[in-house]
Amino acid sequence: MATLEYLSIKQAHDLLINKQVSAKELVQYYLDRIAKYDDKINACLFVRKKNALKQAEKVDAKIARGEEIGLLEGIPYTAKDMFLTAGVPTTAASKILRNFIPPHSATAINKLKSSGAILIAKVNQDEFAHGGSTENSAYKKTANPWNKNHVPGGSSGGSAAAVAADFGIFSLGTDTGGSIRQPASYCGVIGFKPTYGRVSRYGVVAMASSFDCIGPITRNAEDAEIVLHTIEGKDSMDSTTIESNSSDENTIENLTVGIAKEYDGDSMQTANDLLTSVGHTVKEIELPDSELALAAYYVLVPSEISSNLERYDGIRYGARAKATSLNETYTKTRDEFFGPEVKRRNMIGTYSLSAGYYDAYYEKAMQVRTLLCKQFNELFKMCDVIVTPTTLSPAFAFGAKTDPLQMYKEDILTVSSNLAGVPAISIPIGFDEATKLPLGLHIIGRQGEDTTVLALAKQIQANSDWHQRRPKL
Ligand code: GLN
Residue 207: CB within 6 Å of ligand 1? Predict the structure, then answer.
């Protein structure tokens, strides 16, 4: 049998159509890998063995009949536990959804299913996607495959770790303030957050609805593009979705690339040299005020969280605490089954939305959001894309950021693109000398120009090999 380690979508597809491997063998390969290594990595919350193999058999039968198969047919993937998956447990890594089995699937999951991709596992995350290390999961701590004493990032830490550890060919994540890009950066893989509204949020556990984006975590930019074009598009179940012209073949000759002068580490120098060598013009720019953006984010997002999480009342979904009255049911359930970070955000949000504080916090933060969008529009008149590091430092050790504010500061470079709704990707750009952990390059594009961002990522990959390095498990 052909070697199956770290396949891309295209490579796996070629092996399938050339009958060098069957879809069943492919699924079994990932199930075996999960069985062998996941007690060290702890990425998976639920592994879907029987049904995944059954789905693979159908693909094999199709190939045996000589029928053509699509690019994603028979391709095994994992999904963050934020995605509703019919008949498959969905917990959002919270105790409050401990026994929740959804009756229907998210649009993105349905689209992948129709294209023949095979869901093999639901993976770990911070509870309700609140966090940046996956340490807030109510179930377990996922390790960074590059160094198991370090976090994989978050909140889609399980997804990034699963892709880096080869527990599936790609993963689906969610990004409200960096949760696809930051873990991708920490784990040495690719994470793409599309333009807000490009991918339907229907059937994805809501965090902050005007920020939440759905996107792929992959091992190369081509795969990210394939997955994006499969899950994007207008959805009658999510009124914020937009029609996307996925056929746009964006030419990326001589782009003007804005590089922020305040971030001038080694990885930025590497990026600068690489971009110039392939014919782009690099220009120093001043980024919109990142500290203001972070402050606005941590008012607006908890506000939306406090409204979205009202539905977890012990009546409609999941766990219910023992209580003697209706009010006690609400309060005891939320007290017993929400973790500390979820409670903190609910309290901050409720506070900043309440009469008397609304003007001082929520409204002010909304003004900052508008200002930031304007600043991005101005910047995008001067350059086609903006690059920064994805994070200020590589993956940190478990327990290193116990103060919530320290953890929030990790998001300083990623939240702006969610406030402005623009597309952004993180791709590997080398390794930190001291820790030997992966570093990520963050490319931000104009609203709707997702394919430009992806095309540039592909070009950088064609001229480097950081995305091909693998951790020893
Ligand atoms: N780390 C950020 C936060 O805690 C981002 C979370 C996310 O994108 N889901 O809010």
Answer: yes
* Ligand 1 atom nearest residue 182's Cα: 1
Catalytic residue (one of 155, 200, 290, 417): 155
Pocket test for ligand 1, best of 196, 209, 301, 308 (most atoms within 8 A of CB): 301
> What 3-state DSSP class applies to 47?
strand
Q: Is residue 301 situated within a structural domain?
A: no
At 444, give phi and psi (nearest 5°): -115, 135
Is 395 among the domain residues? yes
- Residue count of the chain, please give it: 473
> For the chain, what is the domain count?
1
Q: What is the mean pLDDT of residues 382-407?
A: 96
Ligand 1 site, residue 349, Cβ cutoff 6 A? no
The reply to whether 166 falls in a domain is yes
Task: Return the residue matching tokens 């305040």.
Answer: 262
Sheet arrangement for strand 438-445: 44-47, 118-123, 76-80, 170-175, 213-218, 190-193, 424-431, 438-445, 385-389, 256-260, 281-285
Scanning the structure block, which residue is given the tokens 């879809």?
A: 23
Distance (angstroms) between ligand 1 centre and the Cα of 335 equals 22
Give dist(CA 174, CA 168) in Å, integer. 17
In this prediction, residue 365 carries a pLDDT of 98
Domain containing 133 equals: 1-289+367-473
Residue 442: CB within 6 Å of ligand 1?
Answer: no
Q: Give the separation between CA 253 and CA 248, rounded to whole angstroms.
A: 15
pLDDT at 1 over 80: no
CA of 429 to the centre of ligand 1 (A): 22
Q: Determine the pLDDT at residue 278.
A: 96
Confidence category of residue 244, pLDDT binned at 50, 70, 90: confident
214 in a structural domain: yes
Q: How confident is the model at residue 249 (pLDDT cuts 50, 70, 90)?
A: low
The reported pTM is 0.97
Q: What is the pLDDT of residue 248?
A: 56
- Specify whether 179 is catalytic: yes
Q: What is the CATH number of the domain that holds 374?
A: 3.90.1300.10
